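Many introductory courses stop at the sequence. We go one step further.
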Amino acid sequence: MAAAAACVLLAASQASATETKEQYIAAGIFETGLLPEMPEDANCPGITSGFADRYNRSGTLRSEYSPWLSHAGVDWGLPEDTPIVAIADGRVIARQADAPGSATGNQVIIRHQDGPDDISASYVHLSGFNVDANQEVKRGQVIGFVGKTGKEVTYPHLHLNVYGRARVQLGDRKLRYRYDFLQFLSGDMTPIDPVKKRNQKVKVAYIDQFGKVHPPEAKVIWPFICRVKG
């Protein structure tokens, strides 16, 4: 009898886990297969924690309660107060200050692309701001600084979310559909098959310490200033 009850509980647990995984996929949070191709002529800060990564920076699973809990953005671990630049032209739609219990801390939200599925980005855990709400910004413009604001944040880093207009149910909350930043950087926003993935190296476009964008026609760039070599 006890064994039968255990089997029922296990089946329920597995069904719940499957449903949660499907919800994450429906929300766009899955491994895309995209990898950054870093420039050979410049030093750019590397990604610390990638999109849909199930593991923390320490190498442990993000949650002991859900095997599918994944990272819904991209992280760069850098010294506090490192300048952060806008990844594309846009308009600041929110500048939110840290508050007790806030998971995001200081954050700036910029709408980068208008259309049927507006593309926006939230720049999270900032130490401070360099823009105001409703301000128009240009790619490469400093919009804030790396910090560790927000509940349970243990080290200075930028957490960058890229998302669309649609809202998707994820557990007991609704989340805007997420995109891998590398997909936005690639310029190809067509849907990615979560099974086949895209398996592509995305060339990193960037702004250098002299304010020059490489390549100059790039519409989306790395969120940090890269230093050209030599």
